[in-house]
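Explain my protein.
***
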Amino acid sequence: MKPQDIIILLQIALLQETKWSYKSLSQKTFISPMQCHRSIRRLDEVHLFNMQLNKINYPNLIEFLIHGFKYAFPGKIEGKALGIPTAYSAPIFFNHIVSNELIVWPYKEGQKEGISLEPIHEVVPQIALRNPKMYDMLSLLDALRIGRIREIEYATLKIKEMLNKPFMLNQYQH
């Protein structure tokens, strides 16, 4: 599995629609339609998506994100950079987690200076600037990658809230 696979899958999940195309995914994620198709095939192989039913396996996705994501895509902290706040520095954590350090995805058009965290894929900052729901989700996942217990607990709760919508629970049948 590649980082772009998770981006594609989360985009489908957060669309809250059943209809999408590789072209529409490409436009929303800055990943080519061909790469989107390859991602879906890989996701089908690891049982996070069912191509025959065109459905996400939400229980598997939630389990992977909460328990396996940080091992598959470990956080790499680097020096100071100008960028976009992420992890527990992102807006979704405001009023819940207080931290003296600012964590950012390095991005030339970023407005904040902080400790640089390498995003799981180069398109992450662009997606975050265009799609608030994806920004929240990707920041929550970064908190799982580098956070302490309180950040991880909060991120886990919010990820489950975002993905455990009633309309999603019965979308996957074995």
The two ends are 21 Å apart (CA to CA). Residues 66 and 156 are 6 Å apart (CA to CA).
